[in-house]
Design a protein that fits this description.
It contains 18 helices and no strands. The protein is mainly alpha-helical. It has two domains: 109 residues; 223 residues, Heme oxygenase-like (Heme Oxygenase, Chain A). α9 runs antiparallel to α12 and α14 packs across α15.
């Protein structure tokens, strides 16, 4: 689907589910004002409309899925971005809507897990780690042709521009995800996450902060901030939403361990293909520093993550199942996200 067709499809989808725009407009009001002004009947109606949005997404309505993930992303923005004016962060009604969206999103990911997949995990920690890696290597997302064929050898500069926009939901804020995730941890796990975070912070050099380096790509392609959200697909929004969801809640910490660990483990091979494409196209060197850096650093991070975060936690059955759950959420959602890009490959 072309970018123009994609945007038209999104607009028509939002017209079908006006609750997305309605709730989005409420997010710019203060929490106190919002909760005081909405009557009980209005709150009930909003929640019923969100339940219907979730129900339609569950049965495969692509417009509902997009609206669901867009609204979830906008609500998460209240707690992941510094505002310039009062917002609805902390609003009771917004929190109720948020939980409805989160629960539906988690249920959808769990529905895609093969029966017995989590229970198949070995009980011995090192064997569990080997099993996790094997799970990834045998998954269809591993060395996906979108990277190995399309990005590497066929992508145009325009394709890379769109790729960077879609990737911004995770790569563009990985430092904040780590900061949220580490709350309440201790020992080797906290030190590993802290070391990872400090690397993301450029080891104290503001010019080497990884989000700063990633944003250089936006400058190469002249991508304005207001283009980012409206260009994101539903599956791209989902990737970012899952990352925030798992990192912000303490009871989902082990899922975040699996989700972020797998993200870092898969990144080096993927980024090799991006660098190859960048150099093939002769694009400005400043824009590829982030990806070149992460080919090496994410290999180190993944190894440390597996042995200092995953293995110590894997002594617990609850933790093993939850880490595997987060791992599979990452593998499955990444596969769907990359699959939706494959028509570009097929067309060429």
């Amino acid at each position: 689907m072309s970018t123009a067709a994609h945007l038209i499809d999104q607009e028509s989808g939002l017209d079908a589910y006006p609750v997305v725009r309605e709730i989005s407009s409420l997010l710019n009001r203060s929490a106190q004002d919002l909760d005081a002004s909405l009557a009980t009947g209005e709150r009930v109606a909003l929640c019923e409309a969100v339940r219907e949005l979730n129900a339609q997404s569950e049965i495969g309505d692509s417009a509902a899925f997009y609206g669901q993930q867009l609204l979830l992303s906008r609500i998460y923005g209240l707690s992941t971005q510094l505002p310039e004016a009062p917002t609805a962060e902390g609003s009771v009604i917004v929190q109720e809507v948020l939980r409805l969206l989160e629960q539906a999103t988690m249920a959808a990911e769990d529905a895609m897990l093969e029966p017995g997949a989590l229970e198949a995990a070995p009980t011995e920690p090192l064997a569990f780690l080997s099993w996790l890696k094997k799970l990834a290597r045998e998954h269809r997302v591993y060395k996906h042709p979108y990277y190995r064929e399309f990005i590497r050898d066929q992508a145009t500069a325009g394709d890379l521009r769109n790729y960077v926009i879609q990737e911004s939901v995770v790569d563009g804020r990985f430092d904040d995800l780590l900061a949220m995730m580490q709350v309440g941890t201790s020992g080797a796990a906290k030190m590993e996450i802290a070391g990872n975070f400090w690397d993301e912070m450029g080891n104290g050099d503001p010019t080497q902060v990884h989000t700063h380096l990633f944003n250089q790509i936006f400058r190469v392609f002249d991508i304005p901030a207001d283009e980012l959200e409206r260009s994101l697909t539903a599956n791209a929004l989902l990737s970012g939403n899952l990352a925030v969801l798992l990192c912000r809640y303490r009871h989902l910490y082990p899922e975040a361990v699996g989700f972020l660990g797998m993200t870092e483990w898969l990144a080096p091979d993927r980024f090799v293909q991006v660098v190859h494409a960048w150099e093939r196209l002769g694009l400005p060197e400043i824009g590829i520093v982030y990806h070149k850096l992460h080919i090496t650093i994410d290999s180190k991070h993944a190894a440390g993550w597996f042995h200092n975060v995953v293995v110590p936690a894997a002594v617990s059955e609850r933790m093993r199942h939850a880490i595997a759950r987060g791992t599979l959420w990452r593998l499955n959602s990444s596969a769907r996200y990359l699959d939706e890009r494959m028509p570009d490959l097929a067309a060429r």
